[in-house]
Every structure is written in C-alpha cells, then in structure tokens.
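We treat protein structure as text, and this decision shapes the records that our systems exchange. The tokens are whole numbers drawn from a learned vocabulary of local backbone shapes. One such record is reproduced below, unchanged from the form in which we store it:
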Amino acid sequence: MDKQQETKITRITIRIDNVYSKLEFPDFMTRDAINTIKSWVKEDLSYRPKDYMYMPQYRNRRWDGFISLFDWHSCKFLTGLVPIVQTCLKNHYIKCAIIDERIAPEPKRNSIKLNGIEPRDYQIESTRAAVQRVRGILDMGTGAGKTEVACAIIQYLGLPTLFIVNKKALLFQTKERFEKRLGVEVSVFGDGKYEIGEITVASVQSLKKHLPSIKNYLNNYFQVVFVDECHNVSNNSYLKVLNQCNAYYRFGLSGTPLDRTDNANLYIVGAFGPVIYKVSSSELIEDGILVTPKIFFVPSGEYGGAMSTYEFTQCRKWQDVYYNGIVINRNRNELITHMVEHLLTDWGRKNVLVLIREIEHGRILQEKFEKELMISVPFVHGSTNKDELKSYLNQFKKGKLPILIASTILDEGIDLPNISSIVLACGGESTIRSIQRIGRGIRKTEGKEDVVVIDFIDDYHYILKRHSQKRMRTCKREPNFEVHDIGEKIKKEVSVREKRHYGR
C-alpha cells in the first residue's frame, strides 16, 4: 500500500480538551504517511507575521518566516482550531473521529435581570448563542454593549468567572459596571489588589506576573473565561495565561476580532473558536442605537506639513518618519490646534477628545493648546494616576473639560458617551485602532445626534500618505460612516493671517 492510498483509508482521531486538542494516528500507519498528514495540518495552521522578511532570523536564513500553531512532535494544537483541522483532513479524503474529553459544568440557568437596563434583542441573541455554543467570539461593534452581554452570560451560567482586560484603567470601570448590572460583589486582580472571587476582573499583565501563585485557580476554579478586546490575544501575555486556564466556557469579545492583517487571527480563533455572533456598528447606527460619525479628512500637507526637506523625504525607518512627520511636525501640530479651536467655536462642539500615540506628542500639543487657546488642557496616558484619570474622565463626561488629550489607553473599553468630537492626531495604519478610536464617540445619549471626527491626510511622505489612505478606505468601507475630504472647505475658511501662521 503506498502512502497516498494509506492516508485515504485511514481514520484519524482528534482528542479534544479545553485548551489543546491532539491528533492520534493508528498503530499500523507508516511514519511517511503520518508525516505527510502532519505536514498538511501544519501548513493550514501556519502564517507569516507582518514584516517577517526584515527579521534577522529570516534574513540570516535561520527561519523560513512561518509561525506554526501545530506542534510537530506532540501533534497538539489549540482547540479552537479543530474545525480548520477537520476541513484540512476532509480535503485530503481523510476521515476523523472526535473524542471530546472536556467535562461540562452544570450551568445555573438563572433568569437574566440586569439592573437598570432592559437587554436589547441582539444582546439576548448573542447571549443565547454564547451559552449554546460554549466557546466562540462575539463580534460586536463599539457601542454595542459588550459588557452588558458579558453580564447576561455570567448571570445565566452562574459559574466562577474570570474576565480579562488589557489595561488597568479598565479594571475598576468594569468592576463597577458588573456590580451595577449584576448586584453582586466583584473581585479585582491587578493594580495593587489581588483578590479571587466568584466573579473576578483581572488585568492580563497581573495574571501573567502572578501565574505561579494562581495556577491552581486557573486550572481548577474558573469555569468561564472572557477576554475583552480579544484581537490582542496573539500577545504573549495572553497566550501564557490562557494556556493555563482550563475553563470550559471561553469567549472573546471585540468589535474588530479578525481584522488582523498578519494572519495572527489563527491565535484568536485557536483560543476561542470562530465568530458565533456578529453585529456591526454600522448596523446599530442604521437601527438608531448609535449615532453617525461624520469623519472629515484634512490634508495636512496643504498647510505646510512641509517636513518635506530632503532629509525627511529620504527617511525609510517607520520610527523616524513618524517622529518627524507626526510627533514634532510643527506645522501639522499648528493645524491640529486650529482644528480643535474650529470645532469648539465655529462648529459649536461641546468637547474635543484629542488622541495621540506618543507621550511626547501629547506633551507638545498640551503646551500648544494651553498657550494658544489659553485654557487648561489635561493629558492622560498609561502612567496617569488612576484617581486622577478617573477625575479627568468624569469631568470630561460632565462637560467641565472642553479638551482632553489622551494616549492609546482610551483606544479600548473606556466609556465616554458624551463625546461630541474627536481629533485623530495619532496617524498610523491600523484598521482595528481606526474603528476603535472612532467608536469612542458613537454611543448615543440624550440630545446627541452625531459625532464629528477629524483625521488627516499626511501627504508629505509616501509612508504617511499610504497610512492615511488606508485609514480613509477603512472608514469608507463602513456603510453608515459619513466620510468627507474637506481640504477645499478648509482652504476657504482659513484666513490669510492663519495661513501665514502655518508657514504659507
């Protein structure tokens, strides 16, 4: 019997557990046939990360550029990838048998009564999908109420639950939301508090740091695990924690879960399984649950984005291009200042959230705003004291702060429903972050009909221009996002004096 014939008539066993599953081959199968099947599976469970060709290992020919989620020797792979493996075997005419060794805990099946709100139809549907499918990704656009859905699932199951966040700013906000909706005490693991309870909200960083001391809880106590903003799961910290967590129910929450451009989606699917429910921000806008974002792209090069010196245009490293073209670009920062003032005065916006990436950029804009607009402007970032952060966010929510500068700590999870306008000063190419940042402002509140978003076309360097165009395409793909190029409009509105101020 040749290798091809052998593989066609062979039945392979897939043994399933909570974290890992395993291929098992019959004793009579030859090593060559086994290796052939393993190579097929490995190929389907491999990807090349972004910019792999620039990595030293690849350039020195010590690595082929592929990362595989299939262990060749143990034949193990993440359980969420079982459907992909099944499809791979089927495509090669190989039958497989499933042995599921997971022990399902008995859910309490409590009625869902979230204090203060009546769950919307799509939230009930997503809850039902989760408890029926046991594991999977809930793809819910920003503003869909992912936290409320998590509360509904937790309440229905009534099992020990671990809810993982990736920023300390979200720890206590999530704790407060859970306690408000569920009416029970919620423990926090992180930021100096290390408690384990029936419902525990934990930072992934703290879990990783204290992994040896909490391994028993991860292995034997928690029956349900959630990961908020699960598109981050390919991060090493998440993998170390999740690979130790033996929870039967496993859910990923995100508005952009499988938008990774480097095929690291395999990690996300491996950890949780496929998307089991999806509702987009555009759908919720159409239904009137969220407000319409009106996104205006301003060509910063029109106002002396003029970092167009020879030295700058010859920059090839992304870090150098970003620093010179975004962070310390005096003319672009002048334009940002003008747009913030324009939003508050001419457009009558109540408040402006200015999002940046680099701390230095935030400091530069803070100084410029306070000097030229003559008002106090707070700047919040990863090192901001939690009480100070909470105070600033509350003031901003209540309309007591017209301008707030924030780093990427507000990209995910932070709830600021009263935002009337956002200035995306940060640039970058990430489609995930673009949608998340816009999503900060589309929650509906009384009297709020839309949110104005200002972004920039940085057309004075080919890398920045390419990134700008990518952000614009991302926004245009969303059916209910309004996207405008206001280069001509701004040209007419900016006075001769202001133009001179920008270097013209």
User: Anything to note?
Assistant: The first strand starts at residue 11 and ends at 16. Residues 462-477 form the longest helix (16 residues). Residues 494-504 have pLDDT under 50 and may be disordered.
